Amino acid sequence: MKKYITLALAIGAWISNSNTLTAQNAQNPWAIGIGANIVSIDDSNDGSGTGVPALSLTRYLGGSFSIGAQYSANSIDGSAEEYYTIDGIIKYNIVKEGKVIPYLFAGYGLSRFGNGPDEDAMFPSKESARTTVGGAGINVRLNDKWAANLSTSMRNASEKGSSNQLQHVIGLTYVFGTGDSDGDGVSDKKDVCPDVPGLKEFEGCPDTDGDGIPDNKDACPEEAGTAEMNGCPDTDGDGIADGDDACPEAAGSAEMGGCPDSDGDTIADKDDECPTVAGEVGNNGCPWPDTDGDGVLDKDDLCPNEAGVAENGGCVAEPTKLIDFIANSESKIYFGTASIKIGESGKELINNLKALLDEYPDVNIIVQGHASDDGSEDYNMKISQKRADGVKAALEAAGVDGSRISTEAYGESKPLSDRKSSRRVEFDRGVN
Predict the structure, then answer these.
(1) Which of 145, 180, 168 is nearest to 32 (CA)?
(2) DSSP of 73-133, one letter per residue?
(3) Residue 71 DSSP symbol
(4) I need a surface site. Which of 23, 162, 223, 403 has the fewest CB within 10 A?
């Protein structure tokens, strides 16, 4: 008997770190057991034996109770006696779930041991005794279907010529049925979401945000929304879900990413510095001014605050060398993909420009950042601004007064012949 107890303890230690699992339940109502049994006869000189099989079949009733039948076969050591039992039992699980599930059981059946001449069946009337059974056991869970089993029972025979018996059983138990992996009361067979606890009205799927749309059909399972928006919210009611709406609290149009465009200049109000007056994209949504009234718009006027002539870029006098520098196709600083780092050739060009600005102290310049079309329009606008800001910072570090330098970002709007040359900074005359 010691070797069987040792085996049971070893199995229990092996699975001691397993996850918590449940016993028989409504989704897995059936359990079948198979193993070996050890029996001791209380009035026999050599009344013990070890044999196989020990079989059981039980079905869950509810409230931790199960009902079933068990059968065992054995032989008594040192004699020719054969031993058989068959019983009907009721089992009660002391706990419903856990790594180790203890239980009690009781029943009524027949016990037979002997080898008399009247033996003509497995349970002959002469050598079989009606028997009451009571005992306890444990199931040590191996996984959600299998358990190691160890039980002990006392069997009280009620007829003359019979003996009471102490029986131990060790083996394996297999639980089966429709299954309910997530324990939500919906069997796996009918559960659309068998691995996540859910609701019966949604075929076993959860509705985390409580909007009446199950998570498996909800594009925004953690935010309450509407069926029209596939479960997502639409705060401003413009027909664009908040997650896709750049202006979720202000009704807009799909063309503007969900934002309004009050002046109709194709620039969303959030990006429009003049949201009530139609303007130009290049001037942040505002109309281009002509501050000095010389007929040259400020965007094209190198001297917007001083009236000049168009032929001279809106200026009166011409800083020839600087103009030639700006006009030279070599006077550009190029950048790597997604980079704002200024290379050696760019640093040399900055030094040359600094010398010209020292020669023309009254002339201001514009640093214009550009990008290729590799990324999104918004990203390219931002990186072109960073490139322009970086060149301005380098000029300031070289000694140029920052008030003489302005920056402009064009993103991908003014590409050159290829992407490599489009990633650049150019220079233009600024406002004096």
Answers:
(1) 145
(2) EEE-TTS--EEEEEEEEEEEESSSBSSEEEEEEEEEEEEEEE--TT--SSS-TTTEEEEEE
(3) E
(4) 403
**Which among 422, 421, 338, 417 is positioned nearest to 376, based on CA atoms?**
338
The DSSP code for 266 is S
Stretch 37-52: mean pLDDT = 77
The phi and psi torsions of 174 (rounded to 5 degrees) equal: -115, 125
Would you say residue 4 has pLDDT above 60?
no
Compute CA distances 324 → 45, 92, 218, 348, whole Å. 123, 99, 62, 17
pLDDT band at residue 3 under the 50/70/90 scheme: very low
Which residues touch 235 (CB under 8 Å, ≥6 apart)? 242, 245, 248, 249
Token couple for 396:
């300031």
Separation of alpha carbons 220 and 203, rounded Å = 19
Please give the structure tokens belonging to residue 423. Answer: 């990633």
Q: Judge if 2-176 and 319-429 fold alike in CATH terms.
A: no
How far apart, in whole angstroms, are the C-alpha atoms of residue 333 and residue 338?
A: 14
Q: Which residues pair with 166 in a beta bridge?
A: 40, 154
CATH number of the 319-429 domain: 3.30.1330.60
Distances (CA, A) of 219 to 225, 229, 265: 9, 8, 33
Euclidean distance between CA atoms 102 and 95, whole angstroms: 7
Distance CA 157, CA 151 (A): 19
Q: How many helices (H) and strands (E) does the chain have?
A: 5, 12
Domain 2-176 has CATH 3.40.830.10: no
Residue type, 386: K
- As a whole number of angstroms, the distance between CA 317 and CA 312 comes to 8
Query: Model-level pTM greater than 0.85?
Result: no
**Residue found by looking up tokens 């309450």 in the block:** 224
Which two three-digit tokens encode residue 243? 């997650």
| CA distance linking residue 159 with residue 176, whole number of Å | 38
**Which of the 8 DSSP states describes residue 293?**
-
pLDDT at 6 over 60: no
Average pLDDT over residues 402-410: 96
Alpha helices (H) in 238-343, listed in sequence order: 320-327
Indicate the domain borders of the chain: 2-176, 319-429
